[in-house]
Specification:
With 589 residues, this protein is α+β, with helices and mostly antiparallel strands. It contains 14 helices and 22 strands. Strands 15-16-18-17-19-22 form a six-stranded antiparallel β-sheet, with helices on both faces. Strands 5-6-7-8-9 form a five-stranded antiparallel β-sheet.
Length: 589
């Protein structure tokens, strides 16, 4: 990612607008993430601080944090020390990836105290450290001697900035001096020499400097022509100006629309291989870039235990079904056992006993070919016939039992796959708790000793079609049952992807005849909120709710239906977002 010191400088310029604001609340939605809610004349909003190794950052955010039931110790410490304090300064040492936030607070004795929050954005070494008078109060990640001997981060110790690298600061050094330093590095490709020489610039910025200076040619730092040196000087000047301005910033996406990087200037190095999306402010870009990825990662972590339980149950059932099917194939030979028994019984008068094999005419086949039937010499011919009958009846009973067991196991497997699908689409802790409660009721998860009543089910997701029909979606199996069997009216339309896990989707008709557009959009929503979300031409069955029934004893979310039609649609994320936004807009109005 291009969250380098230069981009951080742009972020700090934006954070200056919050100077003077009071800290109203402190939240810690994840173990390495904080959200400060700031209130003031110049700014009202949330400041996100993240020390996550995969996405360390600091910026304003529009996402409301989802707090754990019990706040972590570091969060409670910050609430005690910072709440009510004012943000007085935003500092960045040079172009280092460190932000120092100064807060003017009042301690328990009524004395004024300046607390400094250091947000260190350094990959897996990222941290958020609170200090006062140069002493560490605490950190979101404590670093002791068992982890490193170079830089300890523990309460009571002196706070020191991370060791500085031997690089030049672009904002404090003229471009000619920088060029001389770059040219004096060990021979390397120009963009690599720039990376070794300049403080606070990422590889994508270094490659862009090379592109602007040399027209995209692969040039070594010790082979620069006078024209290329002038081009590099000009490019460095433009970079310096860009850092100081409040010009738009850019997200880089591939041709499928998936973002893969961001930067503070319109890069040209990718040519037509990247789509640039412009944002007015760094926080808007970072919020858009990280929010969805961070939410998915957070939910994946929280759902790990449930996912592990469901995955193990699916694997166990799959192995069981395969074994039972193999046994069932063996039972298919039972007719041979009956034929052997019948032939022996019909020819008892010809058998004397003590034979190891009987060769008899098989009158079950045309031409009565000879059939060789193995015998137990220790048994009489009659007992051998009874033995074959017994094995036949045993195989017949096994086939009936295995067929029923496979049917039950297949139903159980289909149910677990719906739970696994619901887990991939869970967006918050409430939804995970509903799935956990469902698994407790079905015996897959040990029941909690907490005697509190489970929270009521969340309301179904709501959408509004382009022509004004309401569409409701269940988040999990329990919500699907609630929505389809209790909430929906008989004349509403029920949608579900064909033969795949997915949400029950209800098109609320309210006595009207739904338009073709409403039916198509409801089918697209059902396809998008299913296991087939990444597919094309997904079959979606739909029927009136009156034709949807739940068999007695069926698992949650499992229904049967008839009198249905099938629509073939392609899931559309943008349509889902638009129809969801239209629902919110309608409520606000």
């Amino acid at each position: 990612m291009a969250f380098d010191g230069a981009f951080l400088h742009r972020v700090c310029n934006e954070l200056e607008t919050a100077v003077g604001c009071k800290v109203d609340k402190v939240c810690q939605p994840a173990k390495d993430e904080l959200v400060l809610i700031l209130r003031g004349k110049s700014f009202n909003g949330r400041l996100l601080l993240s020390a996550n190794a995969n996405s360390p950052r600091v910026h304003f955010t529009g996402d409301a944090p989802e707090n754990p039931m019990t706040p972590p110790m570091f969060c409670m410490l910050l609430r005690k020390r910072l709440c009510g304090g004012r943000l007085t300064a935003v500092r960045q040492p040079g172009l280092e990836r460190v932000v120092l936030l100064d807060f003017s607070c009042i301690n328990e004795l009524g004395d004024a105290v300046i607390y400094t929050m250091a947000v260190e954005i350094m990959g897996r070494y990222s941290n958020i450290i609170l200090s006062a008078d140069g002493k560490i109060v605490d950190a979101i990640k404590r670093v002791d001697a068992s982890m490193t001997s170079e830089r300890l981060v523990l309460p009571g110790m002196d706070y020191e900035l991370p060791p500085a690298q031997d690089k030049l600061n672009l904002l404090e050094t003229d471009s000619i001096t920088l060029c001389n330093r770059i040219a004096g590095e060990k021979p390397a490709l120009l963009h690599k020499a720039i990376l070794k020489s300049l403080q606070g610039v990422s590889p994508v910025v270094c490659r862009e400097l090379q592109t602007e200076a040399c027209g995209g040619a692969e040039v070594y730092n010790n082979e620069l022509t006078p024209a290329q040196i002038r081009g590099l000087v000009d490019a460095l000047d433009r970079l310096r100006e860009r850092i100081h301005t409040n010009d738009p910033v850019y997200m880089l996406s591939d041709d499928t629309g998936k973002p893969f990087d961001f930067t503070f200037w319109p890069v040209q190095q990718y040519g037509n291989g990247a789509v640039l999306t412009e944002y007015a402010a760094p926080s808007m870009l970072l919020d858009a870039y990280y929010s969805r990825r961070a939410k998915m990662e957070r939910m994946r972590t929280r759902a790990h235990d449930l996912t592990h339980t469901v995955s193990n149950a699916i694997d166990k059932l799959s192995r069981k079904i395969n074994l039972q099917r193999s046994e069932l194939e063996n039972c298919a030979q039972r007719e041979e056992l009956r034929i052997c028994a019948d032939l022996l019984n019909a020819n008892l008068y010809r058998l004397k006993g003590g034979e190891s094999e009987a060769v008899l005419e098989n009158y079950y086949e045309d031409g009565c070919p000879l059939k060789h039937i193995p015998l137990d010499p220790a048994l009489s011919p009659s007992r051998n016939a009874q033995k074959y009958y017994k094995e036949y009846r045993k195989a017949q009973t096994a086939e009936q039992m295995l067929t029923e067991q496979i049917r039950q196991a297949a139903g159980e497997l289909a149910y677990l796959e719906t739970v696994a699908d619901a887990l991939t689409r869970a967006e918050n802790e409430r939804e995970l708790n509903e799935i956990r409660q469902e698994l407790m009721e079905q015996g897959y998860v040990r029941k909690s000793t907490d005697r509190k009543k489970p929270a009521p089910l969340l309301k179904a997701r709501s959408f509004r079609t382009t022509d004004g029909f309401t569409v409701l979606l269940g988040r999990n199996n329990r919500e699907n049952d609630q929505l389809t069997l209790k909430q929906a009216s008989n004349n509403d339309l029920w949608f579900h992807v064909k033969n795949m896990p997915g949400s029950h989707t209800i098109l609320v008709t309210e006595g009207r005849t739904p338009s073709d557009q409403a039916i198509t959009e409801a089918a697209i929503l059902a396809a998008y909120h299913s296991k087939a979300a990444a597919s094309a031409q997904v079959p979606v069955d739909y029927a009136q709710v009156r034709h949807v029934h739940k068999p007695q004893g069926a698992k949650p979310g499992m229904v049967i239906y008839d009198h249905y039609a099938t629509a073939y649609v392609t899931p559309d994320e943008k349509l889902a977002e638009r129809l969801s936004a239209e629902t919110k807009a309608g409520k606000d109005a």
